[in-house]
Design brief:
Blueprint (H helix, E strand, L loop, with lengths): L5 H13 L5 H19 L5 E6 L3 H15 L3 E6 L8 H10 L5 E4 L13 E5 L11 H10 L6 E4 L23 E5 L17 E5 L5 H5 L5 E4 L1 H7 L14 E5 L6 H13 L4 E7 H9 L5 E5 L6 H14 L3 E4 L8 H12 L4 E3 L1 H9 L12 E2 L3 H8 L8 H11 L3 E4 L5 E3 L5 E4 L11 H14 L4 H23 L6 H6 L1 H9 L7 E2 L1
Helix pairs in contact: 2-3, 3-4, 7-16, 8-9, 8-15, 10-11, 11-12, 12-13, 15-16, 16-18
C-alpha cells in the first residue's frame, strides 16, 4: 500500500474533479459516510458524539459524519471553531444541509461548551492535510482544551496539529491525541513517522473511490511494508531444494566482549532459510557460536578480535568458500576494524554484502572504503551509526528525508532502524515497516536482522527485496514473540526463535494488517 503526502492527495482530488468530472461533493460525502459507519461500529454503545469542526474541507467531512450519526439515532453536537459563514464550496453545502436537522450547534467564541462526559466520543475534524503552520487562534485553544478530555477521540484524516508530510510536531505544538485516525484513500507520512505517529492511535484507511488510474498518475514511490507487500517478495523453497540451492551465508564478526552478536547473526541466517551458515570469528567467540546450536559452521582465527593479523587469512577463506552472501559487523569491535574490512572487501568481488554495526563504524572512520564497496550493498545502521556515517545528528522526525538523501549520495540500500524502520533505495523507492514493537529495542536485535537479510541474499533475493522482506520478517518475529513474553521480556533470542513462525504467518496470511475499509 502506497503512502502519500498532502500534495499527492490534493492532486488526486483535483484530477478526479477536473479531468474526469467527478463531483468533489461526492468525495466528501463518501468520506464522511464511511467514516461514520466505522465510528458507529467501533463505538456502538456510545450514546453521545461531539464533532469539532474546522473551517475547511476537514470540517466539511465532520459535518457529513455528524449527519450520519444523527440519522443513526445518536445524540450529536457540533462545535465550530469559526463562524459558519466561513464555509465555502462543498463544506458550505453540507452546512446548509444540516439546517433544520435538530443537531445542536455552537461556536467556540460563544464560550458555552456542550457538556462533555467520559462516554462522549470526540470527532476531531478541525484541521486536515493542508496544515503547514502550528494551529493558532480558536483552533489552538480548542486543541489545548480538548487534549485533556477523558473520552475517546477519533481524528479525521490526521490529529489536528500534525503536518501530513513529516513526523515532526509543528513548532513543537502538541496535537489533539487520537484513539483512532480515519484517513482517506491512502495513509499519510505522519501516520508512520514518529513522534507524530504516536499521536494517531490506530490508523484506519478509508477508500473514498478515487480511481486506480488517477492514483497511477501521482508517481507514488513510498510504501507501507506489511504482509501483502511481504508476500510479493517472499520466495518459498522449491520442492527440489537442497542446502546448496538455499545458499551459503557467511557472517563475519564477534569478539571477546561481543561473542553473542555473531552467534545470534549466524543462527538467524539458518532460521531465515539459508542452506549453510558459517561464522567467521575470532577464537574468543567460537564457544558462544557452538553453544547457541550445532548447526552453524565456525571458522575461527586466533585472538580476541578480528584485525590486521587475521585479514589475509579471512580474505583467503572467502575466496576459497565463495559464499553466496556476506554479512559483516555484528560484534566485530572497533579495534582495527577498518583495516580488516578493507581486506575483506578485496576478496568479496560482486558477492552481495550486508554491513552492520562496527563495519559501518569502520566505513565512517575511513571514508576511502566507500569506493571499495560492491554495488547495491545493504547498510543497516541504527540512528547513532547513521549519525557517524553522515556526520550530522538526525532526529527521529527527520529520518525519511535523511534516508532518501543518503541513498542518492551513496547508491546502496539503506535500512535505517528505529520505530517503523525505513528501507530506501537509490531508485527512489522507500518502504516504511508496519511490523515490530518497542520491545525490540534490545541488545542483539539488530544482529538477528543482519542474519535474516544475509540469508535472503544467499537464497537469491535481489538486494532491495532482501532488505525489505528481512525487515518485515524481523519485526513480525518480534510481534509473535511478545505474545508469550511481553514487550518488557523480549530478547533477541526470542526474536530468532520466531523467524520460522513469521514466515508461516506471511504465507498463511495470519499476520497483523493495517485496517482498510
Amino acid at each position: 500500500m502506497f503512502i502519500a503526502n498532502a500534495e499527492q492527495i490534493r492532486k488526486a482530488d483535483q484530477i478526479m474533479m477536473e479531468k474526469y468530472g467527478f463531483p468533489g461533493l461526492l468525495l466528501m460525502e463518501t468520506a464522511g459516510r464511511k467514516a461514520a459507519e466505522f465510528i458507529l461500529g467501533e463505538y456502538a454503545n456510545s450514546p453521545e458524539f461531539l464533532v469539532l469542526a474546522g473551517p475547511g474541507n476537514n470540517g466539511g467531512d465532520g459535518l457529513v459524519i455528524a449527519r450520519y450519526l444523527h440519522l443513526a439515532g445518536k445524540v450529536v453536537s457540533i462545535l465550530l471553531s469559526h463562524s459558519p459563514q466561513k464555509y465555502k464550496g462543498d463544506a458550505q453545502i453540507n452546512w446548509d444541509a444540516l439546517q433544520g436537522s435538530g443537531i445542536s450547534t455552537s461556536k467556540w467564541s460563544d464560550k458555552v461548551l456542550p457538556e462533555i462526559r467520559p462516554q462522549t466520543v470526540l470527532i476531531d475534524a478541525l484541521l486536515g492535510t493542508g496544515l503547514h503552520a502550528a494551529p493558532h487562534g480558536a483552533i489552538a485553544e480548542m486543541v489545548a482544551h480538548f487534549r485533556t478530555a477523558s473520552g475517546p477521540v477519533v481524528a479525521i484524516d490526521l490529529p489536528s496539529g500534525l503536518s501530513a508530510d513529516t513526523g515532526r510536531l509543528i513548532d513543537g505544538a502538541e496535537p489533539l491525541p487520537a484513539h483512532h485516525t480515519l484517513t482517506f484513500q491512502l495513509p499519510k507520512l505522519c501516520h508512520y513517522l514518529s513522534p507524530a505517529s504516536t499521536w494517531c492511535g490506530l490508523v484506519v484507511t478509508i477508500d473514498i473511490g478515487i480511481w486506480p488510474a488517477v492514483m497511477a498518475e501521482l508517481g507514488l514511490q513510498r510504501k507501507l511494508l506489511y504482509g501483502a507487500e511481504a508476500r510479493l517478495l517472499d520466495q518459498a523453497p522449491a520442492l527440489d531444494a537442497h542446502k546448496g540451492s538455499q545458499g551459503h551465508a557467511l557472517l563475519i564478526g564477534g569478539s571477546r566482549l561481543y561473542a553473542g552478536a555473531i552467534a545470534l547473526s549466524a543462527h538467524a541466517a539458518l532460521a531465515a532459510g539459508a542452506g549453510l551458515s558459517t561464522a567467521l570469528t575470532p577464537e574468543a567467540a567460537r564457544v558462544a557460536v557452538y553453544e547457541a546450536g550445532p548447526e552453524v559452521m565456525v571458522k575461527a582465527f586466533p585472538g580476541d578480535w578480528l584485525g590486521p593479523n587475521q585479514a589475509a587469512e579471512a580474505a583467503a577463506f572467502i575466496r576459497k568458500t565463495k559464499p553466496k552472501a556476506i554479512g559483516i559487523g555484528p560484534g566485530l569491535g572497533r579495534e582495527d576494524a577498518a583495516s580488516f574490512l578493507e581486506a575483506v572487501l578485496s576478496a568479496t568481488g560482486s558477492c552481495p554484502l550486508v554491513l552492520d554495526a562496527d563495519a559501518l563504524n569502520a566505513l565512517a572512520d575511513q571514508p576511502r572504503l566507500w569506493a571499495k564497496l560492491p554495488k547495491a550493498c545493504i547498510l543497516t545502521p541504527h540512528p547513532g551509526e547513521f549519525r557517524r556515517l553522515t556526520g550530522r545528528d538526525v532526529a527521529q522526525a527527520g529520518r525519511l528525508e535523511s534516508a532518501e538523501a543518503f541513498v542518492q549520495k551513496h547508491p546502496h540500500i539503506l535500512v535505517l532502524k528505529g520505530a517503523h524502520t525505513l528501507v530506501a533505495g537509490p531508485d527512489g523507492q522507500t518502504f516504511l515497516n508496519f511490523s515490530g514493537n518497542p520491545g525490540m529495542a534490545t541488545a542483539g536485535s539488530g544482529d538477528v536482522l543482519t542474519g535474516i537479510i544475509t540469508a535472503l541474499l544467499a537464497r537469491g533475493h535481489a538486494p532491495f527485496s532482501a532488505a525489505a522482506l528481512g525487515v518485515y520478517l524481523h519485526g513480525l518475529a518480534g510481534d509473535l514473540a511478545i505474545k508469550s513474553c511481553g514487550q518488557d521480556g523480549l530478547t533477541a533470542s526470542a526474536i530468532l526463535k520466531n523467524i520460522g513462525p513469521a514466515f508461516l504467518a506471511i504465507r498463511q496470511q495470519s499476520e497483523p494488517i493495517p485496517v482498510i475499509i
